[in-house]
Design brief:
The complex is a heterodimer of chains A (about 350) and B (about 600).
Chain A lengths: L1 E6 L21 H16 L5 E8 L11 H7 L3 E11 L6 H10 L3 E7 L3 H7 L5 H13 L4 E8 L6 H13 L4 E6 L20 H9 L5 E3 L2 E3 L3 H7 L4 E4 L4 E4 L2 E5 L3 H6 L4 E5 L2 H13 L5 E2 L5 H10 L4 E4 L2 E4 L5 H9 L4
Parallel strand pairs in A: 1-2, 1-9, 2-3, 3-4, 4-5, 5-6
Antiparallel strand pairs in A: 6-8, 7-8, 10-11, 11-12, 13-15, 14-15
Helix pairs in contact in A: 1-2, 6-7, 10-12, 11-12
Chain B lengths: L3 E8 L5 H11 L17 H6 L6 E9 L2 E9 L7 H9 L3 E7 L6 H12 L3 E7 L8 H12 L7 E2 L8 H11 L12 E10 L3 E10 L2 E2 L3 E4 L4 E4 L2 E4 L6 E3 L1 E2 L4 E8 L10 E4 L18 E7 L5 H14 L4 E7 L3 E8 L2 H15 L3 E3 L6 E5 L4 E4 L11 E16 L3 H10 L3 E7 L4 E9 H4 L3 H8 L5 E12 L1 E8 L2 E2 L5 E4 H18 L7 E7 L2 E8 L15 H16 L2 E3 L2 E3 L12
The chains are: A alpha/beta (about 350), B alpha+beta (about 600).
C-alpha cells in the first residue's frame, strides 16, 4: 500500500495552481492535523504495510515539522524497511530546522517546488521565492542530509524562450539532485491564469528539455526524469493507495475515494468520502494511458483482440514490444497512442 | 360557390408575403388577437428561425362585404427559388394570386419566375405594392417597374403596408371583386385535386384538396384514382393556422383537409385525384409536373450504425416533403448512406437540418452535384449523380452537363461585377435589358454545376446584396470535363471527388489539397493529401506527424480526472471519419464547397 497525505496550506496561491490549498485559515492548522490523524488512523486499518509515503500539497513546509510527529507515530509500525518517504517543500519554507526535523521523523526524499531559476518568470507564476532562495534551498536540503532531492520546474509559459529554458536546465544539471519533474503549464479553471493568454503555443520546449536532461536524468514518465519516484510509479501501476487529507484521493478494490475538498467540512467530518467505482473498461483505459505515458508499459495479454491488433500495427514505428509489454517510443504521444489503440471500442 | 375566392400570394423572398398573410388573417378575425403570433403560416422551427417559407400553408377565412359573407381560402407560398415546386402546386388550386412587390425594392428575379407560373395557370393577378410605410417606398416607380418587366397593368394595383395594416381592407375588397369565384358542377361526381399532403402523428396521412366538382362527405367511400385504392372519409376539416375546423362536407370550389386514417403518405400523393368510389368521375384532373430534384448529395450518418435510422427519418420526412428523392449508396470513405436529390441548395440545407434536428441524427453531406449524362465509347448512355460513378477517361466518349437559364436583376452600378462573376462561371449571355434606368435584367445560360455550390452567395457579395437571381433548367450541353479525385494517405476518398472543367482542374486541385491541409489535424503518422486525375497526381500537400498529445500533469492520484479528459478527446474523434488510419474531420467533406 502507498500513502498520500495532503497538506492544504500555502503562504500564497500560485497563478497556475488548482490543487486544494488555503492561504488563510492557518489558525485551523491544529484542528486540521487532528482531523488528518483521525482519518489516517481509520484508513490504516486496511494497510498491511506501507511501501511509500508522499506528503504533498498545498505546501507541507507551511506546517512546522512538529505537526508531523503524530502522523509518523501512527505510520511507523507499517513502514517497510526501505520505504520511500517524500515531502514537498517550498524554497522559503524549507528552512534548516524544518528540513532537519522532517529528516529526523523519517522523511528521506525532498521535492522542492522551484518552478524556475529566473526571477521574472517566478514573478510571472506568482511564486513567493527568488531564484537565489531556490538555489540555497537545494543546498540546505543537501546539508540536512537528504540524498534524494527533486526539483519541479514548469514550462510552456508565454514568458518562456529557448534561452530562459536553457539556463534553467543548466542550473538543474549543476545541482546535487537526482530527480527533475518538468511540467507543461496547464490552464485550469478557477486559477488566476484561467482565460488569459499565458501559454506559449509555438515552441516545442519539451524536446529541448528531454534532450538536455537525458545524459544525467533519463525520462521515465511524460514529466519525470532521473531516479524513479516509487510513489508516483505506484500510481501509474495501479497499486492501491490510501489518500488522507482534504481533497485527497485514495484507490483500492477498483474504487476511488475522494475526501471532502472544503477545509472546514473536512475538519468536521474527515471520514466522509465520495466513492467512484471503476468499471473494467475504466480500469483498462487507465492501464493503457498510464502505461504508455511511462516506463510501466502495457501488458499485451491484457488488451482485447481488436485493441491488440491496432497496437501491433504501431509496433516498430511508434511502439516497442518487449517481454509481452508495449512501450511508447515517444511518451509525449501517450494520449494519441491510447486513443488510436482504443479505436471505436468501449 | 359564388362567395368563395381561392387565392395565393406570390412574391420574391423578403417582400413581406407571410406578414401580409398574417394581416389578412387578423383582418378577417380568424384568430383571436391574443393568439396572434408572427408569421402564423410559417409553422416549422426552421421557417420561423430563417424567416423563410418552405411549405405552402392554407387557411380558410371569412369576410363580410355588402352584407354578404365570403369564404376566402388563402394559400401562402414559399418565395425561395428552391421551392417553386410548392408554388406551382398552390397555384393549381387557386383562381387568382396576389403579386406582392416591395415598394422600396421593385421587381426581383423571383417575382418574374412566379408570374410565369401564375400565367400558365390562367390566374387573375392582383399587383400589390407592399411596405408603403417605408421611407424609401416609391410605389409609382415600382408600378412602372412591373409594367416594364412583366407587362402587367398596374393602374389598379393595391398599395398596402402589411406592417401597419394600411390598405388591407381595400385589398380584401379587390380580392372579392377581381378574383373569379371557382367554377364547377356541384351535381357532378366528386372530383378533387390533392395539392398537398403531409403526415400527422395522430391522424395519419392527410390530404389537402381542392374540390373541383361535386363534394366530399364524411363517411363517403372515395377512390384515389392514381393508386386505385378505396378509402372511407373519417373526417373533414377546413385548414386553419391554429385549430382546423371540422366539417361534414367540403363543397365544390372549396379547399379542405381529408382524413382517411392512412399510414402511408404514398396513398394520397400530391397531384392525384379523389373521386367517389361508387360513382367515379371519368377523367382524373391533370396533375402538375412532379418536382424534379436537380441537386444531389450524399448524406451519411457520422455514426455508421445509424444507417437504418437515417432511412426511417428520410421515409418520414418524405411524407412532408414530396420533393426529395433518395436511394441508398455506399461510399468507401463514409460507409452506408443515401444519395439524396434536392430542389436546390437551400432545400438541401433545410433537409439536412430537419433530419438532424427532428430526428436527432448527425450527418455528413458530401458536396452537391448535378446529373451528368455520359456517352461511353461503347455507345451506352448513362446518367450519373455521383462523381465517383464517372467511368475512367478511356471509356468516356462525351460528357453532357445540365445548363440553367439564369435570370439576374441587378442595379447597374454592379453590372460589371455580375458579368465578371457569370463569365467565371462559364455563363453565356442571352439577354440584357434595362427595366428602369438603374436596374438591369440579365439572362444567361450557365452550367448548373457552377451555380449549385455558392453562386448565390457570391452574387450577393459582388452586388452588396442588391441582385436577385432565379433559374430554371434548360437542357444539356457537351462539356470538356474531368473527374478530380482527392487521395488521403494514397487512398481515393470517393466522397471528395468532383467533376470539373478540364481547364480548371489544375488550380482546383491545388486549392483543394491546400484547404484540406489546413483542416486535417496532425495524426500519429504523416499524411499525404493529393489531388489526381485518373492516375496522374496533380497536387500534393503533407500533414506532418504529430509530435505530442498528452496532458503533462498526472499525479496526486486523481487519475479519474485524467481518464475523463481522455474520454472527452475520444468523443471528439468519434465525430471524425476514419479513412484507413486517418481521421478526417467533417469539415473536410465540405472543403470542396469552399473553393473558387
Amino acid at each position: 500500500m502507498l500513502l498520500y497525505i495532503h497538506i492544504p496550506f500555502c503562504d500564497s496561491k500560485c497563478h497556475y495552481c488548482s490543487f486544494v490549498s488555503y492561504t488563510k485559515n492557518h489558525d485551523l492548522k491544529r484542528a486540521y492535523f487532528e482531523a488528518l490523524t483521525l482519518q489516517l488512523e481509520h484508513e490504516l486499518q486496511r494497510a498491511e504495510s506501507l511501501k511509500t509515503v508522499f506528503i504533498g500539497g498545498g505546501t507541507p513546509s507551511c506546517a512546522e515539522w512538529g505537526y508531523y510527529e503524530k502522523i509518523f507515530d501512527l505510520i511507523s509500525p507499517y513502514l517497510l524497511p526501505e520505504a520511500e518517504i517524500t515531502a514537498e517543500a517550498n524554497p522559503t519554507g524549507a528552512t534548516k530546522e524544518w528540513l532537519l526535523g522532517m529528516r529526523s521523523l523519517g522523511v528521506n526524499r525532498i521535492s522542492l517546488g522551484v518552478q524556475s531559476f529566473n526571477d521574472a518568470k517566478l514573478k510571472f507564476l506568482g511564486r513567493s521565492h527568488t531564484s537565489k532562495e531556490a538555489l540555497s534551498a537545494v543546498y540546505r536540503a543537501q546539508e540536512a542530509g537528504f540524498e534524494r532531492i527533486s526539483c519541479d520546474i514548469i514550462y510552456q509559459c508565454s514568458i518562456d524562450n529557448k534561452r530562459l529554458i536553457d539556463e534553467d536546465l543548466d542550473i538543474l544539471l549543476s545541482l546535487p539532485i537526482e530527480h527533475v519533474s518538468a511540467y507543461e503549464l496547464t490552464i485550469e479553471e478557477q486559477t488566476a491564469f484561467y482565460g488569459k493568454e499565458v501559454k506559449n503555443s509555438e515552441e516545442p520546449f519539451y524536446l529541448l528539455i528531454g534532450e538536455k536532461l537525458q545524459d544525467k536524468f533519463s525520462q521515465y514518465e511524460v514529466s519525470n526524469y532521473g531516479r524513479i519516484c516509487m510513489h508516483n510509479l505506484g500510481y501509474w501501476m495501479h497499486e492501491p493507495y490510501i489518500g488522507v487529507g482534504c481533497g485527497a484521493v485514495g484507490f483500492y478494490d477498483s474504487r476511488r475515494f475522494y475526501s471532502q475538498r472544503d477545509l472546514r467540512a473536512y475538519i468536521k467530518d474527515p471520514l466522509k468520502t465520495r466513492i467512484e467505482t471503476l468499471s473494467r473498461s475504466d480500469l483498462l483505459i487507465e492501464k493503457l494511458f498510464l502505461g504508455l505515458r511511462s516506463v510501466v508499459g502495457v501488458e499485451r495479454e491484457l488488451l482485447p483482440l481488436s485493441m491488440r491488433e491496432r497496437a501491433d500495427d504501431l509496433v516498430g514505428e511508434k511502439l516497442t514490444l518487449k517481454n509481452g509489454r508495449y512501450y511508447a517510443k515517444n511518451l509525449f504521444l501517450a494520449d494519441e497512442l491510447a486513443l488510436y489503440i482504443l479505436g471505436e471500442t468501449l | 360557390m359564388k362567395n368563395i375566392r381561392n387565392f395565393s400570394i406570390i412574391a420574391h423572398i423578403d417582400h413581406g408575403k407571410s406578414t401580409l398573410a398574417d394581416r389578412l388573417i387578423q383582418e378577417c378575425g380568424a384568430v383571436e388577437e391574443r393568439k396572434l403570433g408572427e408569421q402564423m403560416l410559417d409553422t416549422m422551427d426552421i421557417e420561423k428561425e430563417r424567416g423563410i417559407t418552405i411549405k405552402a400553408q392554407s387557411v380558410r377565412l371569412r369576410y363580410k362585404k355588402d352584407g354578404r359573407e365570403y369564404v376566402l381560402n388563402l394559400i401562402d407560398t414559399p418565395g425561395h427559388v428552391d421551392f417553386s415546386y410548392e408554388v406551382s402546386r398552390s397555384l393549381a388550386s387557386s383562381e387568382g394570386a396576389l403579386l406582392v412587390v416591395d415598394a422600396s425594392q421593385g421587381v426581383e428575379a423571383q417575382t418574374i419566375a412566379n408570374v410565369y407560373i401564375a400565367l400558365e395557370n390562367d390566374l387573375e393577378l392582383i399587383p400589390v405594392i407592399n411596405k408603403i410605410d417605408l421611407p424609401a417606398a416609391d410605389p409609382q416607380r415600382v408600378k412602372e417597374d412591373i409594367e416594364n418587366s412583366i407587362g402587367l397593368d398596374c393602374s389598379e394595383a393595391v398599395e398596402v403596408s402589411a406592417k401597419t395594416g394600411e390598405g388591407i381592407k381595400e385589398l380584401l375588397e379587390a380580392i372579392i371583386e377581381k378574383i373569379p369565384p371557382p367554377q364547377g358542377d356541384p351535381k357532378a361526381p366528386t372530383k378533387a385535386l390533392i395539392y398537398d399532403s403531409w403526415f400527422d402523428s395522430y391522424l395519419g396521412a392527410l390530404a389537402l384538396v381542392r374540390v373541383f366538382d361535386g363534394e366530399i362527405r364524411k363517411g363517403q367511400e372515395i377512390l384515389v384514382m392514381g393508386t386505385g385504392k378505396r378509402h372511407e372519409v373519417l373526417d373533414l376539416m377546413y385548414p386553419h393556422p391554429i385549430k382546423p375546423q371540422k366539417s361534414d362536407k367540403i363543397s365544390t370550389g372549396e379547399i379542405g383537409i381529408v382524413v382517411l386514417g392512412l399510414k402511408n403518405i404514398g396513398d394520397v400523393q400530391v397531384g392525384d385525384t379523389i373521386t367517389d368510389a361508387k360513382n367515379p368521375t371519368d377523367e382524373p384532373i391533370e396533375g402538375f409536373e412532379e418536382a424534379k430534384p436537380f441537386v444531389f448529395a450524399g448524406l451519411y450518418p457520422i455514426d455508421t450504425d445509424k444507417f437504418e435510422d437515417l432511412r426511417e427519418a428520410l421515409d418520414k420526412l418524405k411524407l412532408n416533403d414530396a420533393a426529395i428523392s433518395y436511394e441508398p449508396e455506399t461510399s468507401a470513405a463514409l460507409g452506408f448512406g443515401f444519395r439524396v436529390g434536392f430542389l436546390g441548395l437551400l432545400h438541401m440545407e433545410v433537409v439536412k437540418e430537419r433530419l438532424e434536428r427532428e430526428f436527432g441524427l448527425d450527418l455528413i453531406a458530401t458536396a452537391p452535384t448535378v446529373t451528368y449524362r455520359v456517352r461511353k465509347s461503347d455507345g451506352e448512355e448513362i446518367e450519373i449523380q455521383n462523381p465517383s460513378e464517372l467511368p475512367p477517361p478511356q471509356e468516356i466518349d462525351t460528357i453532357y452537363e445540365p445548363y440553367v437559364k439564369a435570370t439576374i436583376i441587378t442595379p447597374n452600378e454592379f453590372l460589371g461585377n455580375v458579368i465578371t462573376l457569370v463569365n467565371e462561371k462559364r455563363g453565356v449571355q442571352k439577354r440584357m435589358d434595362y427595366i428602369t434606368e438603374e436596374r438591369v435584367l440579365l439572362e444567361y445560360e450557365i452550367p448548373m454545376n457552377e451555380i449549385v455550390m455558392d453562386f448565390y452567395d457570391k452574387l450577393k457579395t459582388v452586388t452588396k446584396g442588391y441582385a436577385s437571381f432565379d433559374y430554371e433548367p434548360c437542357g444539356y450541353k457537351e462539356g470538356d470535363l474531368v473527374k478530380l479525385d482527392i487521395r488521403v494517405a494514397g487512398e481515393v476518398v470517393d466522397a471528395l471527388s468532383i467533376i470539373v472543367p478540364k481547364t480548371k482542374a489544375q488550380s482546383r486541385g491545388r486549392e483543394l489539397v491546400k484547404k484540406m491541409k489546413e483542416i486535417v489535424p496532425r495524426q500519429l503518422f504523416e499524411v499525404a493529401i493529393q489531388a489526381s486525375i485518373g492516375n496522374k497526381i496533380i497536387a500534393r500537400e503533407t500533414v506532418k506527424a504529430m509530435g505530442k498529445n498528452v496532458t503533462a500533469k498526472c499525479y496526486g492520484g486523481d487519475i479519474s480526472r485524467k481518464r475523463k479528459l481522455l474520454e472527452k478527446q475520444k468523443a471528439g474523434k468519434k465525430r471524425m471519419k476514419a479513412i484507413g488510419k486517418v481521421q478526417l474531420p467533417q469539415e473536410a467533406f465540405l472543403t470542396v464547397l469552399k473553393i473558387d
